[in-house]
Amino acid sequence: MNNNTDAVPESYPMNGGDGTYSYTKNSYFQKAATNVARSMIHNAVAEKLDLNELFSTSSKNTIFRIADLGCSVGPNTFSAMKNILEVVQHKYQQSQGHHFSSSQMLEFQVFFNDQVTNDFNTLFSSLPSERPYFAAGVPGSFHGRLFPNSSLHFIHSSYALQWLSKLPEELLDKTSPAWNRGRAHYANSPDEVRQAYATQFAKDMEKFLDARAKELVVGGLMVLIMPSIPHGVPLSRLPLCVLFDILGSSLVDMANDGFVSEDQVDSFNIPVYAVSPDEMIKFIEGNGCFKIERMELKKPISSIDNDQVTGHALTMHLRASMEVIISKHFGSEIVDDLFDRFYKKTEELSDHLQPIYKEGGTQLFLVLKRK
User: Fold this and answer.
1) What pairs with residue 65 in β-bridges?
2) Per-residue pLDDT reduced to its tens digit, 175-187
3) Average pLDDT of the chain to the nearest whole number
4) Distance from C-alpha of 323 to C-alpha of 119, rounded to nearest angstrom
5) Which of 136, 225, 231, 347 is deepest in the core (most CB within 10 A)?
6) CATH code for the domain of 86
7) CA 280, CA 346: separation in Å to the nearest integer?
């Protein structure tokens, strides 16, 4: 039973289907993040997951339950689940002679979670046919409860937690120091705007960790991957923030040209926050239910060829993830014009963007164990 009595969180689905602007065909930056995390997940399972602790040796059937939170529409979620299953299966086979009898079967159940507006039809129509697990969809916000108590053994979430459950109200209050006039994000805004984002993210993370602490069995693992910014590094070196800044300036141009209103631009803010490792440590310690087994900052974009980090690629990537929220606020008729303008700006700034994407694309990799 879901006991979350708060208002339903905002929903920011990626572009569904498998068309030109779909997330399915424009999520290779996220795929790079998944690939970078592969060996780290292998090591975490090998070193930190104790199957003997999780399962009774008297049971003949052993069901290992995994949830992918914020799975979107694929294909990256399938790669991540395959990776986790392979290493857990390998560890189980290694431990059979020591702790498990040969009659015990290890079965897998994978729960694919995302907002109710996610394109689950595309997700499930593209499920691998030879998958070694039972699949289920779990619609709903991960900012609240999704599963029964102590029902999961492994939780995975990649590039989803940066989305806020809602925008801070003060961003739209013209009397507030955090009114974000003429900007779409906090990247190039007064500190009060960034603080409003940070406060909302802290509230969201408190709910997220509290819910996961109830759902994960003692000894279970949780792997979180998200965009991050190291302490002391300016936002101008974080690719996401730079792209959002360019998108905001493109909207201002459209307002100046009369295609959208100034009020529409002033009331539009992208609900994405890049957390620092220090902040995450504070949230996790405040929750008290998890032990940090591993925490690393990585640069996944450095594994992508230079010719893939083009203005066109960046435009398609951003459109796949932002078109729905933009259409909801401004109407779908502005989308083509907006991203044409965005593309031209990224081309003009390509010499500036290349080193930022290669050097400043930082992701946080976290392995947490339920105490």
Assistant:
1) 109
2) 999 999 999 999 8
3) 86
4) 14
5) 225
6) 3.40.50.150
7) 31
Q: Where residue 349 falls among pLDDT bands split at 50, 70, 90?
A: confident
**What does the radius of gyration of the chain's CA atoms come to, in whole angstroms?**
21
Q: Is 133 inside a domain boundary?
A: yes
Residue 6 lies in a domain: no
Read off the tokens for 346: 């990224």
Amino acid at 81: M
Encoding tokens for residue 1?
Answer: 């039973």
Is 256 inside a domain boundary?
Answer: yes
Phi, psi for residue 290 in degrees, rounded to 5: -125, 145
**188 pLDDT higher than 80:** yes
The domain in which residue 218 lies consists of: 23-370
Closest CA relative to residue 241, chosen from 329, 162, 311, 142: 162
Nearest to 271 by CA among 155, 128, 133, 168: 168
**Pick from 309, 322, 318: nearest CA to 354:** 309
Two tokens, residue 344:
């031209």
Task: Identify residue 25 by its one-letter amino acid code.
Answer: K
Question: Is the residue at 357 inside a domain?
Answer: yes
Q: What is the pLDDT of residue 177?
A: 94
Residues 6+ apart with CB under 8 A from 41: 83, 84, 87, 223
The confidence band for 235, taking pLDDT boundaries of 50, 70 and 90, is confident
Domains: count for the chain: 1
3-state secondary structure 212-246: HHHHEEEEEEEEEEEEECCCCCCHHHCHHHHHHHH
How does pLDDT run across 194-207, given as a tens digit for each residue? 999 999 999 999 99
Element (H, E) at 341: helix 335-348
